[in-house]
Amino acid sequence: MATTSQTYNGDGSTAFTFNVPVMQYSDVKASIGGVETTAFTVSGPYATPIVTFTPAPPTGTGNIEIRRETNNDSIQANFQSGSALRASDFNDNFTQFQYVTQEAQNQSDLALTNSREGDSNVGFKSAITVANEAKTTATAANTAVSAALPYAVVANNAALNALTPSNGSRVEVQDSSTLQNNGNVAGLPSTFTGAIGLFVRLEYLSSNSKWNFVDYRSTDPDNRYLNAVGNVGINNNNTPQTTLSFGTGSVIGLDTSDGSDGGYLYIAGGGGNSTDRGSVITLTGNELPLAGSVNISAGTGGGTDSTAGSIFLSTGATTTPRLSVAGDGKVGIGTLTPGTKLEVNGTITANAISLSTPVNINGVAFDGSADINVGRLPQRSYSSAFSLSKNDAGHHIKVYLGDVTVPKDIFSIGDVVSIYNSGSANRLIKYTNSTTLRLAGTSLTGQRTLASKGFCTILCVNTNDFIIFGYGLS
Fold it and tell me: CB of 379 within 8 A of CB of 361?
């Protein structure tokens, strides 16, 4: 009879050499004074493992038992379709079977011994009880060893139907498409739907003359969501190109199951609530109509707060929003509660403001036909005679040499040009045929003379009709 357990005397020692070979440390069990304990560790070689108790067991004679209980829930080596058959794997499986059988045999012998020597007063289990436990253990060992039997590879459902099986025949169908519709297959999960690459294992039983479901697995269970370089992909056909990749049509939801406070997405740079190191969100793509766009939608908030349903943008180290978009679409810069379509709490600097419809600014009406330059009159310089152009409107012209001509069919009503004579001689302000140049406040028309350091303004009041006024103008 093989030895599967040993007893020791408690003498204050903590470490005991267990002279029984085991397959793994977890197969070592121990009891002290008949009470099971897990207060120990196992080290050393599997052939003679060392069991160290913490604390040391109490003093006693034969009060420490160390035994081997080999795992019989699963086989040591599980062979898959297409895998290499190694002698070491077969040896491990049969060693496991041998150990389990030895332990079952010892339990049977113990049951027989107890039935001969014990009775109810000494607390022995009955021979029948121990024998049944041994039978259960042996059955489990047999099942574990049987599970190591290889499965014959079958291409698909049609190939399965072409087989002539016998009782116990085992197959693995590698393309399980339509397998759920096969009347010769029994025991499939109620919601099972076969697919290419979904392997299904079956065993034929003569008791019902059908292929009976055993289990199923994916073609690549270890690589289904993780590629060779460590990128994780969800819904993207196993081709993630970034650390975490979502396929077309994927939706990331941040919510709560009870409908209470909403979910949060927090991206931090530098760790923790760092504000001096930034995070970046980059959107790429060129497919219209949403190429590289950001679609941000805020809910109503469900409350009475004036900012409910708003969107806020904060920058820098401050948490106070710099930009806000109210629930009614009004935009605020420097304010959380804009009262108009655009409200700015601060100074605006702009080269030009373009109006699409007539508007009144500080009592001055603008019809929106031209850009408005606020607070300045840009300068253009000429050092020789020239004709005014459309681009000169809204500017002041600095003239050093040469005369100035007001052309025909160039300016629109409301166009304004100012002229400054920076030279030391007089300059003529001329006009072309079919153009009227009228001195403001008089009925005089014709060309004018602008004295040195003089300044004048020309305003188009009608088609090819202008008035001129200024200082040093005659």
Answer: no
Structure tokens at 471: 């200082």
In Å, how far are 23, 36, 265 from 103, measured between CA atoms?
13, 18, 56
Q: Rounded distance, CA 454 to CA 224, Å?
A: 83
For the stretch 436-441, contacts whose Cβ atoms lie closer than 8 Å and that sit 24 or more positions apart, written own/partner, are 436/464, 436/465, 436/466, 437/406, 437/466, 437/468, 438/465, 438/466, 438/467, 438/468, 439/467, 439/468, 439/469, 439/473, 440/467, 440/468, 440/469, 441/469
CA distance 358 to 341: 17
C-alpha–C-alpha distance, residues 420 and 452, integer Å: 9
Residues 65-78: tens digit of each pLDDT: 999 999 988 888 87
User: How many whole angstroms separate alpha carbon 185 and alpha carbon 171?
Assistant: 12
**CATH class of the 379-473 domain in this structure:** mainly beta
> Do 397 and 389 touch, CB atoms closer than 8 A?
no
Judge whether 14 and 56 are in contact, CB under 8 Å.
yes
- Whether 111 has a pLDDT exceeding 80, the answer reads no
| Pairwise CA distance, residues 420 & 470, whole Å | 10
pTM to 2 decimal places: 0.29
For 260, other C-beta atoms within 10 Å of its C-beta total: 7
**266: enclosing H helix or E strand:** none
In residues, how long is the chain?
474
Contact 415, 370 (CB under 8 A): yes
- Spatial separation of the C-alpha atoms in residues 125 and 134, rounded to whole Å: 12
Checking DSSP bridges between strand 364-366 and strand 359-361, what pairing results, if any? Answer: antiparallel
Assign 3-state DSSP to the chain and report helix, strand, coil percentages, each to 5: 15, 30, 55
CA–CA separation, 420 vs 398, rounded Å?
5
User: Are 158 and 182 spatial neighbours (Cβ–Cβ below 8 Å)?
Assistant: no
First to last CA, the chain: 136
The whole-angstrom separation of Cα 335 and Cα 346 is 9
Pair of tokens at residue 373: 């330059």
Where are the domains positioned within the chain? 5-68, 87-146, 152-218, 271-281+308-348, 379-473
Nearest to 312 by CA among 290, 331, 295: 331
Query: Are 339 and 370 within 8 A, CB to CB?
Result: no
Beta partners for residue 437, in sequence order: 466
What does the pLDDT look like over 133-184, one tens digit per residue?
888 888 887 766 666 667 899 999 999 999 999 998 999 999 999 999 999 9
